[in-house]
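Fold this: Glutathione-dependent peroxiredoxin
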Amino acid sequence: MIKLGDKLPAVKLAEYVEVEGNGCSIGPNPVDVTQAAAGKTIALFAVPGAFTPTCSAQHVPSYLKNADALKAAGVDEIWCLAVNDAFVMGAWARDEKTAGKIRMLADGDAAFAKAAGLTLDLTGKGLGLRSNRYSMLVKDGKVVTLNVEGPGKFEVSDGATMLAQVKG
């Protein structure tokens, strides 16, 4: 499992972009994790799946609620990762109204989750291989804090906990 001081996995994620600009075309765009994280402080959190109950009702809203405070405390970007495709993540971003606050990044084939050692096998529940629920504070591509949830838990990876860690 990824640990403090480790670099983020050097993989590509995907982001659905609704408005063309800054070299991005409308639709899914590749996001090179190493390049995207370089020189930035990122509050990254991962969820088992888009549109799932805890993820939609609690996890994303906790980061939306704390987004301005996180940015005021020095966070450049907030990333949400899920093992879903970019189209699903784009639809979820619209539904949760994350534009300009949280980058909703698709880890479509679980490359990030696998490389980080943070997978969650939900095959028996019909969901396949997913990401574990966790959060991490990343500075210049390196993990500074890591908060991995226990099975079925939502206690340490929320936006308020991340904000306290950023300020601490």
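The beta strands are 12-17, 27-32, 41-47, 77-82, 103-106, 119-122, 128-131, 134-139, 142-148. The radius of gyration is 14 Å.
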